[in-house]
Structures are given as structure tokens and as C-alpha cells.
């Protein structure tokens, strides 16, 4: 992953540059572009989490504080076309990693699925 190397080698230096783009990509619900936007957003997020493996605790905590609302938006905007991309994202970011480092992600995934807006739960 290109983004994993970027965040591994340079830490969170480029994160402020990528944040608005990731937020825009994940929030995209336009019928003709959402699948591409979601795929790119998922790839950047997976690379970010993989690349943050050796970051200091404070930086990892700040990353998760920003990333959890972004992932919540992604889960709410998930469609049939993007569910595989997000599944790959979650699998890639947690592959061969200590599950204790993913406490914020697990808390997010265990939230009440009916509380969100949009997504497959409310569209059904």
C-alpha cells in the first residue's frame, strides 16, 4: 500500500493534508461517483491505520479520535457496491496486528446499527 508507506515513514505529517479529502470521499453519496470515492477513502484509511503501527500513543489516540466519526459516516453511507471495499479495508487494517490496538474500532463496530442515518439498515 502506498499510503501505508507514506504514514509509516513520515508519521502524521501529511495527515492534515489528507483529512479533508478523506472526509469528502467517505461522505460522497452521489450515484455516479460514490463507489470510486468510497474505494479511495477506504484505501487511504487502511494505509493510515497500517502505517500508524509504530506511532507514539498520543498520535495514535488523536488519529482514532478523528477516524472514528469518519468511519461512522462510511458505515452509514455503505451500499451494496461499496461493502466489499470497506470489508477489505477493515481486514487489511487489522491483518497480523495486535487486536488490543483496535479498541476504538471495535467499540465503533459494536454500536447500535439502527442509531445511524442512511445505510442498509434504514434503507430496508
UniProtKB/TrEMBL annotation:
GO cellular component: cytosol; nucleus
Signal peptide from the UniProt entry: none
GO molecular function: peptidase activator activity; proteasome binding
Pfam family, one: HEAT_PSME4
Transmembrane feature ranges: none
GO biological process terms held by the UniProt record: proteasomal ubiquitin-independent protein catabolic process
InterPro entries for this protein: HEAT_PSME4, PSME4
Segments forming domain Proteasome activator complex subunit 4-like HEAT repeat-like: 3-113
PANTHER family attached to this UniProt entry: PROTEASOME ACTIVATOR COMPLEX SUBUNIT 4
Protein name stated in the entry: Proteasome activator complex subunit 4-like HEAT repeat-like domain-containing protein
Organism: Owenia fusiformis
Amino acid at each position: 500500500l502506498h499510503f501505508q508507506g507514506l504514514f509509516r515513514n513520515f508519521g502524521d505529517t501529511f495527515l492534515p493534508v489528507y483529512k479533508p479529502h478523506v472526509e469528502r470521499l467517505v461522505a460522497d453519496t452521489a450515484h455516479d461517483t460514490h463507489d470510486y470515492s468510497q474505494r479511495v477513502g477506504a484505501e487511504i484509511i487502511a494505509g493510515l491505520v497500517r502505517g500508524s503501527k509504530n506511532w507514539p500513543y498520543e498520535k495514535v489516540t488523536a488519529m482514532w479520535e478523528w477516524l472514528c466519526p469518519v468511519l461512522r459516516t462510511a458505515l452509514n453511507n455503505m451500499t451494496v457496491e461499496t461493502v466489499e471495499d470497506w470489508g477489505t479495508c477493515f481486514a487489511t487494517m487489522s491483518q497480523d496486528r495486535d487486536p488490543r490496538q483496535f479498541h476504538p474500532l471495535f467499540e465503533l463496530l459494536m454500536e447500535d446499527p439502527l442509531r445511524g442515518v442512511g445505510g442498509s439498515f434504514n434503507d430496508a
